[in-house]
Amino acid sequence: MGRTIRTFREAVDIESAKWKTFRRQLRPDDRKRLDKIFDYAIMHADSGTVIPIPHKIDVVFMSVLVEMQRGIDALEST
Fold this sequence. Notes:
By secondary structure, the chain is mainly alpha-helical. It has a domain at 28-78. The chain has 5 helices and no strands. α1 (8-18) packs antiparallel against α3 and α3 packs across α5 (56-76). The mean pLDDT is 86.
């Protein structure tokens, strides 16, 4: 049998778990922000699935940047 390839969502869950100790040290409002970062990655799971990047955290960070830019664009258009 071959190796099973993890889904991108599973990879995000694993990355999130790696940051668990860091998360516990944050203030409660910053914990929510960190959780939102990983939520953004899940929002872009379809894009993260098709790109062959060995470090999935890179896709997480890029997803956050896309969402941040979306917020900037919204602020600039008002």
